[in-house]
Amino acid sequence: MELSPDNEIIDNTIIDHSLHGIHLYSDNNSVIENVTTSSTYYSGVSLIQSNNNKRQMGIEGFTLLEVLIVMAIFSIGILAVAAMQMTSTKGNASARRVTEATALAENQIENLMQLPFDHADLNPANNPHPGPQGGPYAMTWDVNEIDLDGDLTNDSKTIDVTVTWSYGGDHNVSIQYIRPEY
Q1: Same domain, 169 and 100
Q2: Residue 22: which domain range?
Protein backbone atom coordinates (compact mmCIF):
# COMPACT_ATOMS: atom_id res chain seq x y z
CA MET A 1 0.00 0.00 0.00
CA GLU A 2 1.44 3.33 -0.95
CA LEU A 3 1.00 6.45 1.06
CA SER A 4 -1.18 9.14 -0.47
CA PRO A 5 -2.43 12.48 0.92
CA ASP A 6 -5.50 10.60 2.25
CA ASN A 7 -3.35 8.13 4.22
CA GLU A 8 -1.59 8.39 7.58
CA ILE A 9 0.53 6.04 9.72
CA ILE A 10 -0.25 5.32 13.38
CA ASP A 11 1.67 2.60 15.26
CA ASN A 12 3.09 1.05 12.05
CA THR A 13 -0.40 0.80 10.56
CA ILE A 14 -1.36 2.61 7.40
CA ILE A 15 -4.77 4.27 7.62
CA ASP A 16 -6.49 4.96 4.30
CA HIS A 17 -9.20 7.64 4.50
CA SER A 18 -11.09 6.81 1.33
CA LEU A 19 -14.61 7.62 0.27
CA HIS A 20 -15.79 4.18 1.37
CA GLY A 21 -14.64 4.50 4.96
CA ILE A 22 -11.36 3.93 6.74
CA HIS A 23 -9.23 0.90 5.93
CA LEU A 24 -6.41 -0.29 8.16
CA TYR A 25 -3.43 -2.01 6.49
CA SER A 26 -0.52 -3.79 8.13
CA ASP A 27 3.08 -3.65 6.92
CA ASN A 28 2.43 -6.45 4.36
CA ASN A 29 -0.49 -4.51 2.79
CA SER A 30 -3.21 -6.89 4.05
CA VAL A 31 -6.42 -5.30 5.33
CA ILE A 32 -6.59 -5.44 9.13
CA GLU A 33 -10.00 -3.88 9.52
CA ASN A 34 -12.55 -1.83 7.64
CA VAL A 35 -14.04 0.94 9.75
CA THR A 36 -17.05 2.88 8.56
CA THR A 37 -16.77 5.71 11.05
CA SER A 38 -14.54 8.70 10.70
CA SER A 39 -11.42 9.56 12.66
CA THR A 40 -11.68 11.43 15.94
CA TYR A 41 -8.96 13.94 16.82
CA TYR A 42 -7.75 14.51 20.37
CA SER A 43 -4.87 16.94 20.97
CA GLY A 44 -3.71 16.59 17.39
CA VAL A 45 -3.54 12.76 17.58
CA SER A 46 -5.90 10.74 15.44
CA LEU A 47 -7.68 7.86 17.24
CA ILE A 48 -9.80 5.48 15.19
CA GLN A 49 -13.19 4.52 16.63
CA SER A 50 -13.67 0.84 15.94
CA ASN A 51 -16.10 -1.66 17.36
CA ASN A 52 -13.50 -4.46 17.30
CA ASN A 53 -10.40 -2.62 18.48
CA LYS A 54 -11.68 -0.16 21.09
CA ARG A 55 -9.35 -1.45 23.81
CA GLN A 56 -6.37 -1.41 21.45
CA MET A 57 -7.15 2.15 20.40
CA GLY A 58 -7.51 3.48 23.97
CA ILE A 59 -11.33 3.54 24.27
CA GLU A 60 -12.57 1.50 27.27
CA GLY A 61 -15.90 -0.24 27.86
CA PHE A 62 -17.42 -3.30 29.51
CA THR A 63 -17.56 -6.73 27.94
CA LEU A 64 -20.64 -8.90 28.12
CA LEU A 65 -18.86 -11.26 30.50
CA GLU A 66 -18.04 -8.43 32.89
CA VAL A 67 -21.65 -7.25 32.86
CA LEU A 68 -22.93 -10.80 33.52
CA ILE A 69 -20.53 -11.24 36.46
CA VAL A 70 -21.64 -7.93 37.97
CA MET A 71 -25.30 -8.91 37.52
CA ALA A 72 -24.66 -12.28 39.22
CA ILE A 73 -22.96 -10.60 42.20
CA PHE A 74 -25.75 -8.02 42.42
CA SER A 75 -28.41 -10.79 42.29
CA ILE A 76 -26.74 -12.67 45.15
CA GLY A 77 -26.69 -9.47 47.18
CA ILE A 78 -30.36 -8.78 46.49
CA LEU A 79 -31.27 -12.35 47.52
CA ALA A 80 -29.39 -11.88 50.79
CA VAL A 81 -31.25 -8.64 51.48
CA ALA A 82 -34.58 -10.35 50.71
CA ALA A 83 -33.75 -13.19 53.14
CA MET A 84 -32.86 -10.64 55.83
CA GLN A 85 -36.14 -8.84 55.20
CA MET A 86 -38.17 -12.03 55.63
CA THR A 87 -36.30 -12.92 58.84
CA SER A 88 -36.86 -9.41 60.15
CA THR A 89 -40.58 -9.61 59.37
CA LYS A 90 -40.89 -12.94 61.21
CA GLY A 91 -39.00 -11.50 64.18
CA ASN A 92 -41.26 -8.46 64.29
CA ALA A 93 -44.39 -10.63 64.18
CA SER A 94 -43.06 -12.79 67.02
CA ALA A 95 -42.22 -9.71 69.09
CA ARG A 96 -45.71 -8.33 68.48
CA ARG A 97 -47.30 -11.54 69.81
CA VAL A 98 -45.11 -11.51 72.93
CA THR A 99 -46.02 -7.86 73.51
CA GLU A 100 -49.75 -8.53 73.11
CA ALA A 101 -49.58 -11.55 75.45
CA THR A 102 -47.66 -9.52 78.05
CA ALA A 103 -50.21 -6.70 77.85
CA LEU A 104 -53.07 -9.20 78.34
CA ALA A 105 -51.34 -10.72 81.39
CA GLU A 106 -50.63 -7.29 82.90
CA ASN A 107 -54.23 -6.24 82.35
CA GLN A 108 -55.48 -9.40 84.11
CA ILE A 109 -53.11 -8.78 87.05
CA GLU A 110 -54.51 -5.24 87.35
CA ASN A 111 -58.08 -6.60 87.32
CA LEU A 112 -57.26 -9.17 90.00
CA MET A 113 -55.63 -6.53 92.20
CA GLN A 114 -58.93 -4.62 92.28
CA LEU A 115 -60.79 -7.61 93.75
CA PRO A 116 -61.23 -8.19 97.50
CA PHE A 117 -58.62 -10.50 99.09
CA ASP A 118 -61.20 -13.29 99.67
CA HIS A 119 -62.83 -13.09 96.19
CA ALA A 120 -63.55 -16.39 94.36
CA ASP A 121 -61.13 -15.48 91.57
CA LEU A 122 -58.35 -15.31 94.20
CA ASN A 123 -59.28 -18.61 95.88
CA PRO A 124 -56.48 -21.23 95.56
CA ALA A 125 -59.08 -24.04 95.60
CA ASN A 126 -60.28 -22.96 92.13
CA ASN A 127 -56.84 -23.36 90.42
CA PRO A 128 -56.34 -23.06 87.52
CA HIS A 129 -58.67 -20.15 86.99
CA PRO A 130 -59.81 -19.77 83.36
CA GLY A 131 -59.34 -16.31 81.98
CA PRO A 132 -60.97 -14.46 79.13
CA GLN A 133 -60.16 -15.92 75.75
CA GLY A 134 -59.33 -13.49 72.98
CA GLY A 135 -58.07 -14.18 69.49
CA PRO A 136 -55.21 -16.65 69.41
CA TYR A 137 -54.51 -16.23 73.15
CA ALA A 138 -55.67 -18.34 76.10
CA MET A 139 -55.24 -17.11 79.67
CA THR A 140 -55.21 -18.88 83.03
CA TRP A 141 -54.02 -17.93 86.51
CA ASP A 142 -53.08 -19.78 89.66
CA VAL A 143 -53.33 -18.39 93.18
CA ASN A 144 -51.27 -19.68 96.15
CA GLU A 145 -51.35 -18.50 99.74
CA ILE A 146 -48.00 -17.66 101.32
CA ASP A 147 -46.65 -16.47 104.67
CA LEU A 148 -44.41 -13.45 104.07
CA ASP A 149 -43.76 -12.35 107.65
CA GLY A 150 -43.07 -15.80 109.15
CA ASP A 151 -45.89 -15.78 111.74
CA LEU A 152 -47.31 -19.08 110.39
CA THR A 153 -50.43 -17.41 108.97
CA ASN A 154 -51.01 -16.98 105.26
CA ASP A 155 -51.15 -13.23 104.89
CA SER A 156 -50.42 -12.92 101.17
CA LYS A 157 -51.23 -14.56 97.84
CA THR A 158 -49.05 -15.09 94.80
CA ILE A 159 -50.87 -14.74 91.53
CA ASP A 160 -49.31 -16.34 88.45
CA VAL A 161 -51.04 -15.26 85.21
CA THR A 162 -50.08 -17.25 82.10
CA VAL A 163 -51.04 -16.35 78.54
CA THR A 164 -50.44 -19.03 75.89
CA TRP A 165 -50.72 -19.05 72.11
CA SER A 166 -49.82 -21.38 69.27
CA TYR A 167 -48.13 -19.96 66.26
CA GLY A 168 -45.22 -21.94 64.90
CA GLY A 169 -45.19 -23.88 68.18
CA ASP A 170 -46.54 -23.37 71.68
CA HIS A 171 -45.52 -20.14 73.41
CA ASN A 172 -46.40 -18.53 76.71
CA VAL A 173 -45.84 -15.46 78.84
CA SER A 174 -46.13 -15.69 82.61
CA ILE A 175 -46.27 -12.83 85.13
CA GLN A 176 -46.21 -13.30 88.90
CA TYR A 177 -47.46 -10.84 91.46
CA ILE A 178 -47.68 -10.95 95.25
CA ARG A 179 -50.91 -9.63 96.72
CA PRO A 180 -50.66 -8.78 100.42
CA GLU A 181 -53.70 -8.84 102.67
CA TYR A 182 -54.44 -5.30 103.82
Answers
A1: yes
A2: 1-75
The residue among 24, 49, 75 that closes a domain is: 75
71 shares its domain with 21: yes
Quick one: which of 23, 4, 21 has its CA closest to 13? 23
Distance CA 50, CA 13 (A): 14
What residue type is 72 in one-letter code? Answer: A
Residue that is last in its domain, among 75, 92, 113: 75
Separation between Cα atoms, residue 126 and residue 145, nearest integer Å: 13
Q: Tell me the Cα Rg of the chain.
A: 43
Q: Are the CB atoms for 127 and 140 separated by under 8 Å?
A: no
Structure confidence by residue, pLDDT tens digits, 124-133: 888 888 877 7
Question: How far is the C-alpha of 129 from the C-alpha of 119, rounded, in Å?
Answer: 12
Q: How far apart are CA 4 and CA 24, in angstroms?
A: 14
Q: What predicted TM-score, i.e. pTM, was given to this entire model?
A: 0.56
| pLDDT tens by residue, 100-150 | 999 999 998 998 888 888 888 888 888 888 877 768 888 988 998 888 777
| CA geometry: angle 169, 175, 178, nearest 5 deg | 155
Q: How high is the pLDDT of residue 74?
A: 95
